[in-house]
Write a structure and sequence with these properties.
Blueprint lengths: L5 H22 L2 E7 L11 H18 L4 E9 L2 E8 L3 H12 L8 E6 L25 H7 L4 H13 L2
Antiparallel strand pairs: 1-3, 1-4, 2-3
Length: 168
């Protein structure tokens, strides 16, 4: 398991942002950006490839079920984490609601981080659609509160994530 430096993570985020901008400009449709919530310096834990594949399969199956056309799809598999991008010809608010059902579906869905961006690049938030914010993996408080205050150690979070990944 390979550790990732802060600089590598910052570079990966910048590259993700640039790719999102490129895809939004190229396809002029809403964009689904899918990653996994894996805190700490190791982003590709055992089980991450299977969880990522399951997430992609769930996204694609749900879009197909709802007859939403994927105009473009690409993935990146790097030590900084796995990422998938889907350009979809659909209402971004509706797409976000669908993606929230996947995030909230079960324990593995809790590891999914599925952002939906409008064609103008703005992100559709859970809260603007009337959904509660994501909860912490460990204590059920809002995740952003625990994350910002560093309420839990990376080791505690990683152990919980490993338990979830083992259930796949």
């Amino acid at each position: 398991m390979e550790e990732v430096s802060l600089q590598e993570m910052l570079t990966a985020r910048e590259e993700r942002c640039c790719l999102q901008t490129k895809l939004l400009q190229q396809y002029k449709k809403c964009l689904i950006s899918f990653t996994l919530n894996i805190p700490g310096p190791v982003k590709v834990l055992p089980g991450v490839p299977n969880a990522f594949a399951a997430g992609c399969q769930r996204i694609e199956a749900l879009l197909k079920e709802r007859l939403l056309l994927i105009q473009h799809m690409e993935t990146i598999k790097a030590k900084t984490g796995y990422e998938a991008f889907y350009s979809v010809d659909a209402n971004p608010n509706f797409v976000k609601e669908l993606m929230i059902t996947l995030e909230d579906q079960d324990r593995i869905g809790r590891l999914f981080d599925i952002d939906v961006l409008r064609a103008d690049g703005s992100k559709v938030s859970r809260e603007e659609l009337g959904f509660a914010p994501r909860t912490c993996l460990l204590c059920k408080q809002p995740a952003h509160v625990c994350s910002r205050s560093r309420r839990h150690t990376v080791a505690e979070l990683t152990l919980e994530i490993e338990h979830i990944l083992e259930s796949l």
